[in-house]
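Teaching assistant's notes for section 4

Start the section by putting this record on the projector. Ask students to predict, before seeing the second block, whether ATP-binding cassette domain-containing protein will look compact or extended. Collect guesses on the board.
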Amino acid sequence: MLDVRHVSLHFGGVRALSDLSFSVPEGGICALIGPNGAGKTTLFNVVSRVYTPTEGSVTFDGADLLARPRHQVMRMGIARTFQNLALWPTMTVRENVMVGAHCRSRATMLASALRLGTRTEERRLRAEADEVLERLGIAEHAGHLAADLPFGTLKRVELARALMARPRLLLLDEPAGGLTHSEVDALADLIQDVAESDGLTVLLVEHHMGMIMRLSRQVVVLDSGTKIAEGTPADVRRDERVVAAYLGVAA
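Reveal the predicted structure now:
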């Protein structure tokens, strides 16, 4: 589903990614781990076309992703969440989630601004958003402002917004960051259920090793922009390079 080949990205003299290669099979859950500054979010930004790599190729379901403009990425079937919440605090939860379907909207910008023939589509998207919120267990917050909700709930709102795009590849950037242990467990259950029921391919950046061990079938480990290990979660935990660079203790 996703194939990253010999990707390098330099910002002046800073090497953010160096000759990075890995593949994620369709329906797989792949974790991307490493210390802070290893290049994980940078790779997400390459896949979502925020950055263009200095070298290398990225293909999505056989299509050259780097040849597509940024605004087409979601239309291709790629959605993401963010390490730092990227929600509109003065919009309701439902409105934030509806934004995730903009790539599927048939209305033009002018028609939307003048509200010409958009009421039917708005009703449809509201119903879809409510279905997603119900599925993620936060339907009771649909009419609440995002600013009024706790952090753990907002993490689910971001996931709901990404699912509104009906993605085939879901990029999750530290979804468990800032959550309690019980919230992490519940979120892991949710991600697993959604991925299996929707047949999603997932690329997961996460520091919570319990979630990684539970969800992922494949782990890619980065250090200073370079891949130092790849394999199953159990294999990676025993890798001496991973222990030295990231885990810090032997498994």
